[in-house]
Amino acid sequence: MWKRTFSCVFMDSLYNKSSLKWGKTMSYRFELNVEKDEFNQFVENHEYCNLLQSYQWANVKQNWDHYHTGVYENGTLVATGLVLIKVLPMNFTMFYLPRGPIMDYKNEELLQFYFKELKKVAKKRHCLFIKFDPAIHVNDYKSSEYNTSRYEDCSFYLEEFKRLGAKHHGFTMKIEDTIQPRFQSNVYACQDIEQMLPKHTRRLIKDADKRNVKIIEGKKECLDEFSRLVSLTEERKQVSLRNKDYFTLLMDEYPEGGVIFLAQCNLYQLSKEAHRKYDETKKEIENTPENAKKKLRRLNEQIQSIEKDIKEFDEMLAEFSDKDQDVSIAGILSIQFGNTCEMLYAGMDERFKKFMPQYKEYVENFKWAFDRGCIYSNMGGVEGTLDDGLTKFKDNFNPTINEFIGEFDLPVNKLLFKISLKAYEKMKKRIKS
């Protein structure tokens, strides 16, 4: 990785009623390789803080080259950008800044300077275009408050990016239309998350409690079980997610912020408890006089319910293990970065769907994030129509929908840009299919 510094000076004129005064000289310096601690400290404390713009994310994206770019103003870091570089056929490249760069987008001079200098670097790397999807929110709203006239407030940013020469992909609606989802379902911090949940969600958590579902929090020691659960989800949904090596990499790169939650239950104990309740209820029926019809009806209904549970638990015991041990039935891998939490991957054993483990473990994840000072816990992308299965499931946690401004392409090689964009879209569709 080569290193080079670019610099430029902007003069800022300040006007007052009595006279025209020149303000201090502002010196911008472009840096290709900002040091890790300084880079992360800036990103973590910025309003656009995002895991995908953390220093370590470059190591996670192992099949991309990268730069950790930055701009200094009079010696102070004022902008950063993790630039991922995809090598294309014929030695061409594509630059991509996921949810970046991180800067004050209202500072026109800074914005122009950053991309002007980045384009110089891009040309040397035979880059066809620079793709970026800044973490600028178009709107935030509840699913039930969905509205269509919400783009007026972002016109300023669209004009700024247009001045750069960047092409906006528009306000896309499908997850597959962009690299990062333009809509995401997000739970914001509150004092009592359980009280903020819909009634039916609290009821589902009680169902999990009745089956003695417990949530354990761990690190790399949970990777085997978590990977197994993700693979089960892959098989069920006919999708390709990630494997243990990738999850290990995430936990290695974020040793402090990475966490795995596993929902577990003990089938042996559940069966044992059900048999005990059955015997007790049977005895109570035997000792209940025949004229106590109401009580007998209630007890017989209990017997039917317990018999159903016994059948369910015993069938599972025969399939899994009759040992007195905990079984992992669902899991989540999340990463805290700065004051944000990203719930990146989840898996579940569908055979335990009735145990409602995901509802309980999601809430535990929220509590964990908020206790660590996170302002939100992001459950990931949803379709812009808000009528898909992902949205309906995530709506169980009373989330806010974050709608982002979308994706932009800044041509570097104008001659080949249109052709390369078509080739890129074809490649993207092929990879997703």
TrEMBL record:
GO terms for biological process: cell wall organization; peptidoglycan biosynthetic process; regulation of cell shape. GO terms for molecular function: aminoacyltransferase activity. Residues 282-323 form a coiled coil. Gene3D superfamilies: 1.20.58.90, 3.40.630.30. Pfam families: FemAB (PF02388). The keyword Acyltransferase applies. InterPro entries: Acyl_CoA_acyltransferase, FEMABX, PG_Glycine_Bridge_Synth. SUPFAM superfamilies: Acyl-CoA N-acyltransferases (Nat) (SSF55729). Keywords: Acyltransferase, Cell shape, Cell wall biogenesis/degradation, Coiled coil, Peptidoglycan synthesis, Transferase. PROSITE patterns: FEMABX. The keyword Cell wall biogenesis/degradation applies. Belongs to the FemABX family. This is Aminoacyltransferase. It comes from Floccifex porci.
